[in-house]
Structures are given as C-alpha cells and as structure tokens.
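User: Hi! Is it possible to get a structure for several chains at once, not just one? Here's what I have:
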Amino acid sequence: MKIFVLGGDGFCGWPTALKLAKENHEVWIIDNLSRRRIDEELESNSLTDIEPIGKRIATARNLGWDIKFWNIDIAKSYGYFAKAVNELQPDAIVHFAEQRAAPYSMLGQTERRYTVDNNITTTHNVLNAIVDHCPSCHLVHLGTMGVYGYSKEMGSIPEGYLDITVKETGEDASILYPTNPGSVYHMTKSMDQLLFQFYNKNWNIHITDLHQGIVWGTQTEETSMDKTLVNRFDYDGIYGTVLNRFISQAATGKNLSVYGTGGQKRAFIHIQDTANCVKLAIENVPDNKKVRILNQVSEVRSVKELAMIISNSYGTPIEFLDNPRKELAENDLAVDNQGLKSLGFQPITLTANLIDDVRYIATEMHKNLKEENILNSPKW
Amino acid sequence: MKIFVLGGDGFCGWPTALKLAKENHEVWIIDNLSRRRIDEELESNSLTDIEPIGKRIATARNLGWDIKFWNIDIAKSYGYFAKAVNELQPDAIVHFAEQRAAPYSMLGQTERRYTVDNNITTTHNVLNAIVDHCPSCHLVHLGTMGVYGYSKEMGSIPEGYLDITVKETGEDASILYPTNPGSVYHMTKSMDQLLFQFYNKNWNIHITDLHQGIVWGTQTEETSMDKTLVNRFDYDGIYGTVLNRFISQAATGKNLSVYGTGGQKRAFIHIQDTANCVKLAIENVPDNKKVRILNQVSEVRSVKELAMIISNSYGTPIEFLDNPRKELAENDLAVDNQGLKSLGFQPITLTANLIDDVRYIATEMHKNLKEENILNSPKW
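Assistant: Yes, the chains can be modeled jointly so their relative placement is included. Here is the combined structure:
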C-alpha cells in the first residue's frame, strides 16, 4: 500500500514508518521537524543520538526500503499538502502530526495556543484533503487513552463508544464516550474526535482512531538494525513518559519520582507494539459507516507498581512528590482492547529483560542527560 | 459593568451591544468586520442599508450611550486582544465572534477551514486572555441549539447536560449532551463546548454558553431609535435564516421555499429576545463550578408551520424543494428554557404584527434584493 506517515520523524512516527516500509509498503514521511525545534526551545534533547531525517532516510533506503521524506507544515501549508494527496493518492494516511506532550501544552499561553492551533488545524486540513482529493483513503489517527478521563461511574473503558440508558425516555443509546481530558493536549484529542465523527457522517470517510496508552521503550526491531536509525528517548519531565523517566533516573543513580500516591492506574504499551498496531489497523480497513475506535493498549499498571518493578530490579529508592496535575489520587482502570486483538495483536508486556534493554540505553547514553530536565514539568 | 462585545458589528452582536449600552453598561465592541467582508465575497448584502461601524457608533454615542469600537482580529492578533483584556479588565466578555452560517461553512474547503480556524482559535484565544489577565471575567458565549442534533432516543432537550445510566455499571451520571452537529459550523460550536469544559475545570473560569435557536426579525427597540442604527437583514440562502427568507419571498411575490416536507421542528427566537437574554445572562453571573448552559429559545415550530403562517397572512403559495441537508425529514422537539425564564426572560412569540414589521422592511427595501441569492444554499 501507499502510506503517508504524518509526523513520521517523531517518537512513535519514526519506528512506525520503518515498520511499514519493512513490510513492503511505500512510505512517505511528511513532517515539519517540529519536535526537533521544540528540543531547541526547551533546551532539551533525546537521550539517544538521533540523526537528521535525511541521514535516517538514506540508511533506511540502503536497507532496501521504499521510504521518502517531505517537509510540509500541514497546518500552515494546506495547498501544498492537498497537492501531495491529490497527486500521490495514498491508500492510508497515518496521522501522528500533533503536539503530543500534556506538560508542554500546559506551560503557558504560547504552548496552549500552539497545541490547539497546530493539532486542530492539522487534523482538519488532513480531513479536507481526503474529502476533496482522495475520498477512499483510510485515515488512521493516533488518539490517546487520556480522552476517557477515568471516572468511577463509567465502569471499564470500552472502545470509544459507551452504552447508556437515557433517564428521561428509558431508551438505550450508544454514544461517543463522554470525554474528560486532563490537559490542553488531551482536550485537542477530544476535539479531534468531533471532527472525525462529523467528517465520517457527512462524507463517509474511513477513519480509525487509535486511543493509545502511555508508550515506553525506545527501540524496535527496525530502529535497531542500524545505529543511524535509533529512535528518540525522552527522559525529561515535559516529553518523557513516566516509565522512561524512571528508567533514566535508575540508570543515573537518582531516586524514582512518583507523583502523588502513585495509585493512578494507567494503560501502557511498548513502542514496538505501537508500530505493530498501526500496521494492523492499516492493513484491516474499517467500513465507513462509523468511526472505528480501538484502544491501543497492552496492559494496565499503577504508577507505583511500575516504580516498584524498577526499584526492586535496580535497588533504586522511590520518592513521592506532589502531583502537578489535577487528577484522582487513585483510580481503577479496566480497558477493552479486543479490537486490535481480534486483528491479531499480541501485546508485549513489561518484563525485566525489556526494561533492561531500555536501561542499557539510558546507561550508555548518560553523557547526554541533563539532570535539571528530569523534573521540569509544569504544575497545573 | 464593563462589557466587551466580540463580533459586535454583526446581526446578533450589534443589537446586543446597543441594548447593553442603553442599560448603562460600558460597552466595547471588538470586531474585525468579517461579516461585511463575506458580503463582498458572496456578492451578497443586507436587505437593510446598514451603515459603517464608525457612523453607527457616532449615532449611539450621540444618544448618550457609552459605546466604543476596536477593530481586532482575535484569531490572528492574540497579543493585541490580550493587551485590551489586561488593560481594561472587563467584567464580562460576550463572544459572538464566530462564522455563524451553516451553509457558508459547507461551501468548500476554503470556507470549511476558515470556519474551523476562525471559530476555534478565536474562542481559545479569548479563554487564554481571560486565564492570563482577567480570571474573574465572565465569558458569555453564543452557542447554538444545533449542537444537540435532535435524535429520538434522547427525549426533550435539556439545558446542556443529559442524565444517563451507564449500562455496564448501572450508575447514574450527568454528562455533557452528546452532540450530533449537522454542519462544519455546528461542529465548531460542539468543539467550543469542550474548550469551555476544560477551561472551567482547570482554571475555574465563569462561563455561560447560550444555546440559541434560529433568530428571526431585524429591528429591536434600540436599533429602531435612529435609521443609522438599523440592523442587518440577511435574506439569502447562505446567511438568511428560514423565517426571514420566507418573509422576503412573500414581500417580493415569490413562492415560499420549504426544504423537504417542512416537518423539521426547530427552536426560534426573536432578535429582541437575543439581546434581552444576553443581558440577563451577563447580569446574573454563574458560579465557576460548572459551565452554565442555557437554551436561548422562545418557542418551537415546524418549518412548514412557519410557512403556513406567512402563506395565510399574505396569500403566498408554498413550494416544496429537495432538502440540501442530511437531516431527519420530520422530528419532534421539546426544549427546556427554564434557565433564562428563571432569570426573568419573557419570550416574544411569533405573532402577525411582529411579522408585519419585518415584512414592512422587506417591502420597503425591495430595491436591495438580489433575487438570485434567495436560494443559493449549497447542498450537503
């Protein structure tokens, strides 16, 4: 298939693009390199020595993969992007091209407004290009489990739609799960859902929205094939997700910093599984009667449980800090992930040897670590 | 009170600004005159001879009202708008500054993208200016009944929140009414709701969202005080709402054009009531525990019923045309409007003499009518 990977230079996009290319798909990465720009802005960095996109692409092509790169800011250059869709007629567009860090989206008005403007305009421009130029194209979007919002009354987390009874009429209905986002970033993903619902209803676009858990790990089978292909590793308080942060703390002799009681349960997924799941979603096109929403999740763990696994393995003490977020201190969480499983997804779960892989990188790349960045998350 | 009226040069904004000024509030109209620009773009016009904003303001000030005008594009000039909020510290901001025609939002990609970019960015920028510079300011937003979407299972339309039972847990919950917008324009108002929910939850902003019915009429007590103050009258298929279109058809000897069976029931409100309701909402500030959602509606009528009233009064025949929209041919509709009534709202309902007022204008201003514009709505 011919596949556009929007945001294909980023942490999830790059390994997914390589996975798709290795599976003999024709891959076009479209990216404006915004994640690299934000590194400069935050005086932050990947713990791994990531290469410029040109060098990455050259290596991948030397491995025999059909992969190309196009620098387009989809939010700002609609005409240019629409032309690409019109001329190349992709079978699928994978959309990772959003600002994806909750803490970044809460830094201040500049970052709040950038996150909304970039994410909403990009998603909407992609939908418009599909409607006008390639209406049979399948849009696969990276959403987030964070839109669900984890409230007690709602029960276990279904795949996007909630069965309810309306009290006044006693009638049953299936509704889009009522969102309760915890940051401006998560709010944009809730808003994306409304765009998908309407564009699917009115123009019958094929859409898959993958509500992904918190990603951990760094390397995949494909990014490990050459050191030039190495993936990003974000360890800082703004872009680093919790498990990678713990691992880099353990690797550098710091205490593991748990926010609040650590009783927050979250859904996790390894970066290899992200690539595998997106591949499954692309290769199994949904009908266009309804937006297909799948939970892209391998397992549920509490934050404290993660810290304990690492603390027990490496003897690193745990430190409890005030939670910078407004959220429940403790919550139950059961997540339905039957959709992807029915397509063949076999989750990779947290095991000591996988954590060892990540810790090896964190230790090896210690030279790149800026300690002051580990806990630089804003409070909100 | 010191009140900003965003979009205060438009059809609802102008009479509201005058009403507030006449009630001795200090009014700052902020508008980028986009509605006048769109008139040029569509080769369309107001049936009434509206005056430039400077002349309007001068007349209003001569009447002793404290009203000023500032030309700011809030979506594009955040810094300038934020400075105004910071320096003037308004007690309330009334937000009409959105592209407000469903047919316009469905013309093509340019209009779809303009509607989303303008409406979402403007709403979000307003919220950011409040959070950063004037956190106690009360935001009053003009939403629309159109977000509810009119589905049978849901029963009568409550004021923004729906009581449900979650089937899995058997637990009760009150959720934001699940939206089912019928156009890109309505979709933006659904997305606005998510912005309000999050900004209220995270920063405790006082917010009132007025879900308004279809507005009819032209003049209010205040706009009638001088012919320089006359309000817009949109009769075309893109900006003209259904009743005004019928009246201008009747006034010019055309058949009344009913889309589909005319069995669609809709909620209506007279323009005078728009101004009255916004005044009531501003003068009764809600707490900041929850977004206050009020249905700004006077009565429910079917489109056919409206056509019959006018047909009977003026002997104009009714003509049934294919419905350009994807919607139910017939629907029931019961709307709760207790919130505004509890604040003192006394609805003006459709009566022959009020319709006569509007018809008088339509007849008088016949010279301005471009017949080819009456049925220029796009299909979608």
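Chain B touches chain A through 48 residues (CB under 8 Å). Chain B has twelve helices and 14 strands.

User: Great, thank you!
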